[in-house]
């Protein structure tokens, strides 16, 4: 019985050990098959692209602030309070547009003073009317003067009630005369400029009308002189005579050839001299044609402007003559005339009362009291008028207008703010003068760029901005070897805006082009990570290898390189996590 039990236990142990071994071997087999998958999940997942040959246009990127070529500062010569601001930054304005109004705020002190003046004048006039008259002759004169004063006051009040249309007519008349003066001055400037253009004498020309004519004329005269010099030398060698050939003269001045032949160490090539003279003649002709074309264009434009302004002047003269015929020469009196008439009659009444007062008994207390009261009220009226005049002068309405067409680049004040003399309250860019932007680039890169190239405006969403390279100059910063690229900018831009430019540097064919994102740089220079594959029992494994390269050119997307890389090599462009040389990686499923 014990032996059977021992055999049973021994067999059971073998079955347990056998089962454990089977489970272990199965687990090892499963782990072996899954090990590659588990390891791949821990590796960085990469995206690659193949290196290839092809054509690439190199570009340089840069940014700069837009600046106006010319602007002017709006200033006020005295302390004023800003009432209304009619403009804002970036707004386009025309010559003559109102930019600000100053000193126009309602002044309660003036209104109170004017109301008080009316009451004082009424009391004063009542005091005049209430002066007793004791003598018949004087009484009659005073009564007559008093009636005339009352009539004048009534006429003045009626005129004030009906002053709207008369004031408007007077305002239009004054405005027309102001415009006539301005347009006459402009016409005179245009006429003098046309005369200057016709005579090629630009000293009396208005600079705002001639544009670049002076520069074109100087270039033409310079080319004419160069051609005359070259033709003279050629003519002397050819015929022994010196001919200053010009388009206005066919005569030639004989010049002894001995002066030229004295120095035999400087031989002249007659054919080269002729070619030089012909070349300079062509340059002269081109300069003359360009000058004449611009001259005719500007002159025609000025003549049209002259006719238009003359038409305006004729209209203004007719309006002024019409007003003077109907309203002037005593046809009707202005409010000021009526007021002056009241003042004159009031003065006449005062004189009569004063004369009567002198003739009255000096002991007449009533007469003395009335006289003192009248004088006091007269003084109060005069003082109040002076006060009102001073307040109005201090708070006169003034409009600040633009002198040029342009774009507002800065507004430096706020409503109710007080100005300081010569303080720029606004800055206006003169739009016709254009804009510029400057960017700084490496000197070596600047060698690849030529003036006249058009840069792509990267942040130009509307597509209406162009930037042309006009100048390449040295950076003035101490120790800097960089170059400054200056671009002429046209389109819908404003001063102070940032412009991102992409400048083409030329195209070329390259053996190896890779995505720009694949190129990296460290202390040892530029490099790319190339993917190499190695075979294993479980399949191919991929490793990142460093390949040092030299960047030959770049655009927005790709870079042309040379070095330890060949065509069709796969370079890493993106990775799920950082990749170092010799790291094992896994390819992204496509």
Characterization of the model:
This protein has four domains: 2-42; 44-69 and 434-590, Elongation Factor Tu (Ef-tu), domain 3; 70-105 and 396-429, RNA polymerase II/Efflux pump adaptor protein, barrel-sandwich hybrid domain (OB fold (Dihydrolipoamide Acetyltransferase, E2P), Beta Barrel); 135-347. By secondary structure, the protein is α+β, with helices and mostly antiparallel strands. The longest helix is centred in the middle third of the chain and has 57 residues, at 270-326. The chain is elongated and about 175 Å long. The chain has helices at 2-42, 108-129, 136-161, 163-199, 207-210, 213-239, 258-261, 270-326, 335-359, 365-394, 443-446; strands spanning 44-50, 52-68, 71-74, 82-85, 92-93, 98-102, 398-401, 406-411, 426-429, 435-441, 454-457, 466-474, 483-490, 498-515, 520-522, 525-536, 539-554, 558-563, 570-575, 584-587. α4 (163-199) runs antiparallel to α8 and α6 runs antiparallel to α8.
